[in-house]
Amino acid sequence: MSIAVVTDSTSDLPADLAEKHGISVIPLNVHIEDETFLDGVTISADEMYERLPNSKVIPTTSAPSVGSYVELYEELAKTHDEIISIHLSSKLSLTYNSAVNAVAEMGESSTRISVVDTQQASMALGWIAVRAAEAISDGASLDEATALAKNLSERAVFIGMVDTLTYLVRGGRIGKAQGFVGSLLRVRPILTLRDGEAHPVERARNRKKGIGRLKALVAEYAPLEKLAVLYTTDKADAGEIANDVAEFAPDGFATVVQLGPVVGNYLGPGTLGLGLIKAESG
Amino acid sequence: MQNSTDAGDTTGAMLLVSMIRATAKAIEVNRDTINALNVFPVPDGDTGTNMMLTLRSVVDDIGDDASGTIGEVAKRMARAALLGARGNSGLILAQFFKGLSESLGTTDGEPLLRGTSFAKSLRIAATNSYKAVPNPVEGTMLTVYRECADVAEASAAKNGSFENVLSAVAASSLETVRRTPQLLPVLAEAEVVDSGGFGFAVMLDGALRALNGEEPAARVVEVPMPGGTKFSGSVKADFIDASEEIDWGYCTVFAIQAEDLDLDKIRAHMDQLGRSPIVDGTDGIAKVHVHMEDPGLALSAGIEYGQISNIEIANMDEQTAGWASARRGDATSPPVATLAAPDIAVVAVAAGDGLTDLIISTGLGATSVVEGGDTMNPSVAELLAAVNAAPSKKVILLPNNKNVVAAAQQVPDLTGKDVRVVPTRSVQTGVAALLAFNMGLSLDQNEKAMNEVAGEVGEGRVCQASRDVTIYGHEIKAGMTFATFDDDIVTVGRDPLHVLIKLIEERSDGAEIVTVYIGETVTPEQAETTKKTLEDKFSDFDIEVVHGGQPHYDYLIAVE
């Protein structure tokens, strides 16, 4: 019995990690004026962030179509008996819904497909897919891998410190962080995903203090099973954070990951963040 | 039937293709209008674009090749629509093609296109669509599909030909769209009809004109607005402008209970304080609804008439800010949400328009301001009234002046509310503490976090001596400007900006950020100069210069 692992491009999973664990990544779509790009495939993160502040028409994004899921699942079914498909919070996108519709569309089939709504995004989602793939290569069944992914969803944490809330507001994803909007002072909002939508954590008075808080949050969440430091445009800052929190990372090494075009469209240039999985307590 | 009798088109496939091409063209022609109508579920103005891209993928896939039976062509279309579906509207549109593929040409020897099979396809589209979206809502494309299916079935049952059925459906779809605001309140508020539903009606119009051979098949379709009014071309101006009114403030609703309430008097009072007051009541209860910049004022006024309860405060600035900026940028805005009464409220003392705005904007929609400062310390009674009026039983009180701390510390014993005083000795420290205020924390945790921040802030001021004075043991001549920091005098000079620079230079060791609040005595031109000078001069730490509007002090600074 072989089981294929699928996630979507909002996992921000680096290509080498996806390849190492045999994870298929289905891209969301990015719409800039009349052009449509495949997230991370036909538009790179750097291209996106270059265009973002200057684009007159604000880029929008959309879930992978039901049809593209069906194509991917049918392709994987040729070489696998079962599929686990692990996705972005259904509160933020139709990506999960589209996968569920694709499974319904395929109807009775010999391939069992389990679709998981992680209520997470970015590497908090990416690590869940990696852990599921690891468990499957250690012999976990589809049901076991699904149960694990759901359990990991509870322990996965996404943290983002944005330069401005503008991108979240204009993208309609501000969620419960609404109260942070409108301050006449320049502050750095730090946000998380709770129950699948944006939630305020705290406000840092400036970037330097915010970076200090991100490091402190890593220590607060430790011990950890997985840790990535995230950035949209400032790789050096992410690298510095990763160095300083390495002691809390499993194997003493925090992975530095760039946020992809879709996730970045809602957080904006200058964002720094964390994607981690807390160790199981007890 | 004109086109459908084309010699080579033995199954109606070519007619179907020409009609679908016309629907795509029709959406393209009306796309901007459809985008402009889009307020639900997320007002991101892309329904027309999504429908256009979805239809384009169908048209491109078919290309010039209309070979095969009508059933085969419809199946190819359904697959292309599903593959190319964009957004919610595209997904629902794909169900229309699925309906066609499951009902057209399914019987051998069936005539080209029949009314009954078209009716069946609409029914399949409606039924599938309700299943395809996570939360089916009436007043959308779903309603339009369903009612089109009803009309089509009725028309087909009367032996309606395909032309008759399509013609009946095209007309009725516009009437269904006209009624969507009755079914979905957000449409009525924005004075629009459903964008996706209108898009579908536009498609039917294009298809019907193509069938009848009218040129051009795609035309501008007038938006069917309720009551026969005309669509203005954008969401209701009030709906957008609302957010641009700086003083839109808070929608404040509460009840007053007392014997012998004078409703007229309360109404007149509220009218003085805020805008659009509605005051109504019976039997010792008055319900007040008023739009206020400072909801605390309305609540304080209410207390004069009796016990107040059932307080609901919604921050309309925050609700509408995203919307308006989005309209300006033609983009997505957050769904409008009503903020519930906060679990914890903050009452802060401040003087100056800038500081008041700053505190309210930073106070998470839970903060009110009591006017006061150095020369006008608020009384215990004023602080108590503000605490009692605050929209929560848990209140954090920021005295923001060392001469107000003692009065503030009286308040907890005088009220039934759980009040914590964070003894902020200056307004600049109070603002820093307020930034640590967090709805995710308990009252104890907030008190602790705000105290910690307050303890770490260095506070400085720059002011001019109006007469000869002695400050912290230093004699200062009238007209001179001096700077103090915490409880020290730092420097004396003639020019306030030089004094300010000296103050920052001497007291910014290890600072990460210095905030400068510009007072009411400083002219806007001077303020610009100050801002530029400071930003150029200091680079070891961040510097933020804001309008404080405080009396007496040219500049206040916070060093963190």
Outline the structure in words.
The complex is a heterodimer of chains A (282) and B (560). Chain A has helices spanning 15-20, 45-51, 66-77, 95-106, 122-137, 142-155, 166-170, 207-221, 235-245, 261-267; strands at residues 3-8, 23-26, 29-32, 35-38, 60-62, 82-87, 112-117, 156-161, 188-194, 197-204, 224-231, 255-258, 272-278. Chain A is globular. By secondary structure, chain A is α/β, with parallel strands linked by helices. Helices cover 37% and strands 26% of the residues of chain A. Chain A folds into 2 domains: 3-154, Rossmann fold (3-Layer(aba) Sandwich), CATH 3.40.50.10170; 156-278, Hypothetical Protein Tm841, Chain: A,domain 3. Chain A has a 6-stranded mixed β-sheet, sandwiched between helices. Chain A has a 4-stranded parallel β-sheet with strand order 2-1-6-7, with helices on both faces. Chain B is of the alpha/beta class and 560 residues long. Chain B folds into 4 domains: 3-235, Serine Threonine Protein Phosphatase 5, Tetratricopeptide repeat, CATH 1.25.40; 244-340, Alpha-Beta Plaits, CATH 3.30.70; 342-456, Rossmann fold; 458-559, Hypothetical Protein Tm841, Chain: A,domain 3, CATH 3.30.1180.10. In chain B, the strands form 4 sheets. Chain B has a 6-stranded mixed β-sheet with strand order 13-12-9-16-14-15, sandwiched between helices. In chain B, β12 and β13 form a beta hairpin. Chain B is elongated. Chains A and B meet through α3, α4, α7, β10 and α8 of A and α2, α3, α4, α13 and α14 of B.
Structural class of chain A: alpha/beta
Work out the helicity level of chain B.
Answer: 40-55%
If strands are numbered along the chain, what order do they take across the biggest sheet of chain B?
13-12-9-16-14-15
**C-alpha-based Rg of chain A, rounded:** 18 Å
CATH fold-type name of the largest domain in chain A = Rossmann fold
- The overall strand count of chain B is 16
**Mean pLDDT metric of chain B:** 84
The geometry of chain A reads as globular
Fourth-tier CATH superfamily name of the largest domain in chain B = DhaL domain
Total beta strand runs of chain A? 13
CATH architecture heading of the largest domain in chain A: 3-Layer(aba) Sandwich
CATH fold field value of the largest domain in chain B: Serine Threonine Protein Phosphatase 5, Tetratricopeptide repeat
